Amino acid sequence: MDxxxxxxRALVTASSKGLGLGCARALAEAGVDLVMNARGSDAxxxxxxxxxxxxxVSVETVACDVxxxxxxxxxxxxxxxxxxLVTNAGGPPPGMWTDxxxxxxxxxxxxxxxxxxxxxxASLPGMMERGWGRVVNITSxxxxxxxxxxxxxxxxxxxxxxxxxxxxxxVAPHGVTxxxxxxxxxxxDRAISLDKGVSAQQGIDIAEAQARREATxxxxxxxxxxxxxxxxxxxxxxxxxxxxxxxxxxxxGAVNATL
Length: 259
Ligand code: NAP
What we know:
Elements: E1 9-12, H1 18-29, E2 33-38, H2 41-55, E3 59-63, H3 69-79, E4 84-87, H4 102-130, E5 133-138, H5 151-171, E6 176-183, H6 189-202, H7 206-215, H8 225-235, E7 247-250
Parallel strand pairs: 1-2, 1-4, 2-3, 4-5, 5-6, 6-7
Helix pairs in contact: 1-2, 1-8, 4-5, 6-7
The protein binds NADP nicotinamide-adenine-dinucleotide phosphate.
């Protein structure tokens, strides 16, 4: 299917690896020029070179921490007039509800709620003026089904979800859509680090920890960054203009719910 976005320009934050990279690659495959970001420049430059070589699109890179205001300024300055914004950042650490301080919550809110809100606030006016835009926020299955050890993530992402629900309806009249894409367990570095946590906690090896987590998913496997990216690219396509303020869950059926 032609996604109808060849020649468009996208900013994809936190995109040197994992789900962000899956989204960047899928957009590049659809002919979209990219601005990519991560803190570490080695993986970022390698990913950008690979995408340029494979898809022939233009890719600019900005190595910075997107959860800081200076980082947001840097990516937005490099991005300029974008048609597509995909927001992503690392997830907060796991822990216990008894451990989290006010500072821990402020850090989580900054990273996973206020950073995407800041990027949207800066990018939406231009999209609205030009009459076309797509925003996809990478959030988490945890907004539909809480992950107790990830209380910081549950909280911050719920706040972002509420913001998107209202804002998406305010910008939709201008041809701009905002939606969230909710990953369940996907095979990325983040999943491996969570497997390691399960392995240490339950005294089992990492393969067994992965097998136990896979057994909780009806699809009996982790998702892949490329299938996640393909869904993201569709949500950024011309075909998704009637999708407004939705929370699209990609979890292999793990959330046991009718709606
Ligand atoms: P990942 O494989 O660890 O990749 C994270 C990417 O983000 C890397 O490119 C990393 O590069 C970059 N990054 C992290 N923090 C950043 C920052 N402050 N500024 C700029 N770039 C940053 O993670 P993932 O699995 O793709 O997860 C992406 C998001 O989805 C996370 O928020 C995660 O919590 C959420 N999620 C993932 C899963 C899953 O199963 N994978 C499930 C639910 C939710 P640098 O380290 O070089 O910055």
